[in-house]
Hints:
The structure holds two protein chains of two kinds.
Chain A lengths: L6 H38 L5 H6 L1
Chain B lengths: L8 H32 L13 H28 L4 H31 L7 H22 L3 H15 L2 H11 L19 H45 L4
Helix pairs in contact in B: 1-7, 2-3, 2-4, 2-5, 2-7, 3-4, 3-5, 3-7, 4-5, 4-6
Amino acid sequence: xxxxxxxxxxxxxxxxxxxxxxxxxxxxxxxxxxxxxxxxxxxxxxxxxxxxxxxx
Amino acid sequence: xxxxxxxxxxxxxxxxxxxxxxxxxxxxxxxxxxxxxxxxxxxxxxxxxxxxxxxxxxxxxxxxxxxxxxxxxxxxxxxxxxxxxxxxxxxxxxxxxxxxxxxxxxxxxxxxxxxxxxxxxxxxxxxxxxxxxxxxxxxxxxxxxxxxxxxxxxxxxxxxxxxxxxxxxxxxxxxxxxxxxxxxxxxxxxxxxxxxxxxxxxxxxxxxxxxxxxxxxxxxxxxxxxxxxxxxxxxxxxxxxxxx
Lengths: 56, 244
């Protein structure tokens, strides 16, 4: 594919999209994993929410 | 499951867990199709191959405004209807909207240099989008400043609704003022002025970007519900601690 005389600007634009969106996806995914870990650690300690207690 | 059922955070979490894998698959497929179509799109008669930047710049610009619109509707949900997930939706949308706005600014700047001869100019369109980016950062900072989520949600909702005035300003800035940025060429009353060979990949990429936004928003809302659940449990743990 010939991107012409301004190829660097086109490649940089797509690279910026890749970096920004990958960072966003990675942040949300890592955040989810960390939250699940903290939640399961609290549950192992026997900490429950009032609504959990009510539903049992 | 009706929409009202999703107001229950536990039901929303179950819904998100079920829907997210399908959304991720559909987003990946549409991106693959969009990038394939974009690679086959012909050069523009004036802009040459740089027209390919449009396939990421235009969808990210739309989603930059869409993100604030989602936050504004959520803000109404917080202030008027007091929907339990409204401020969760608003908080989750802010960093996603900020990321798309940043991508819009960066890709626009990289498109502007070869076409306009400059990376940046303080005209109405570019400045109003830059203001939108600053507003996103402001709302994110506000959420981090106030610890109590419900109170933070109400304050952020007011700021969001005040900031919503910037969305029509961005949209119509190219009509109201004399700008370096070109006027609308897709969302026009008399129809798009772009040839179908370029319009079709643009629409595919726009749908792919929108699906990505929806997927990430759902995932970020799920994270926010878990964060609030953890906060409640930690508060209960602190209250139950001996000597409290």
